[in-house]
Fold this sequence. Notes:
By secondary structure, the chain is α+β, with helices and mostly antiparallel strands. It has helices spanning 6-13, 36-47, 88-93, 132-144, 173-197, 225-234, 239-253, 292-302, 323-330, 400-414; strands spanning 23-30, 53-56, 66-69, 77-78, 107-113, 119-126, 217-224, 260-268, 279-287, 338-345, 352-353, 356-366, 378-385, 388-395, 419-420.
Amino acid sequence: MDRLTVVDEIFLRTHRGMGTPIALQGLWRITDAMEPTLLQAIHEQLRVGALGRRVIRPRVPGARRAWQPNTRAHSLDIAADPLPERGILPWADALGTDLDPEFAPGWRLSATPLHDGGTVVALTCSHALADARGLIHAVSAALAELRPLDADPTSSDAPDAPHSRIEYGCRTKTSDWSDAISQWTTIITGTARALRQGIPRPPATTTPAPTADRLVHSTLLTFDAATWDHTAATAGGTANSLFIHLVAKVLWETGFPGERIAASLPVDTRDEPRVDNDLAVTEITVSRADTPATIREKARAAYQRRMSSPAGLPEEILQVVPDRWAYALSKGAGERDILCSNIGTLPDSLRTVGTHHCDRVAARAIHPGITTFPRTRLSGYLSRLGDTYTLALVSLAGEPEAFSAATDRACKALGVRPTPW
């Protein structure tokens, strides 16, 4: 049986008002108008694919929650009126409502026509269902399963329907008992070890109230990949270290007073393509004197280690204690001043959708209905498609105008020239 990981559980709690709500979003910009029939076909493939699942609770105390197939889905959402370019992000920011991987569909497929004749397609899902690479894999799998629109589904030459090939483990009480025994064995052994070493007192769990300077706004920028890579190499760094340097620089340009910035760096840990939260988190400290070269060395060392479990206890304990206790133990996990998520190179399969050319793809997190603001003040998400890097920046502090000006200054200082997405 496919069960939730500790990371899945942390993101699941955000749907219960614990922590900062997080939904992942992939955005595809198509150069021309897309047929509703093609969008509906993609929606159907997603519905019966790996995103088509929901969380179920175990029958045995100590067993982990599990995933169960769920073909319920939000209807395909196609905007009636074309949007100007400046309307893309406000439209996309509003797509994260009513996503619940436990009691309601956890994902939504939306599309809007643009004034220039193109189309933007958005896939938005609860972070409990997938991380960024998982979301990209779900789309790739859906596109790969598309049959020609004029194909006869009853023909013997037509490929099998994808849902006929999906196999799920049978959920039985015995499997819950087996999982519970394994979990409790790990927890008891690990807790005994932590007690011998001494457990630090967990941090206070007071929830900060929203303030006037904590507002969410975002931007999408594209960069010529060859120029970006050359700029990074000239400075002795890599595409990734230039990315981290730029995000830190933007935060300083917004008026962040500290001489050092703590950066959270997610690390993809999957060994094969799959739709899951398959990630770990490490961190580095960026100083004002750092360069892409020094950040490269810091990041290289950091990727060899991971952030530890809460208070020295085995991380599995977060899956057996009551939700509010688990939230108190894991509160702030992975949160630093900035988040720099390098999603990497996207598959070429995303460059075409049916017969349509896709010239821009972006991946990012959004925070629907946010009331509890995290320590993180700025998040960056970098991805590459073909000869273009796309940088998604999500700011959780300051005013939109100041953020835009700060981004422009940071790019100019580092010698990179962005163009709007």
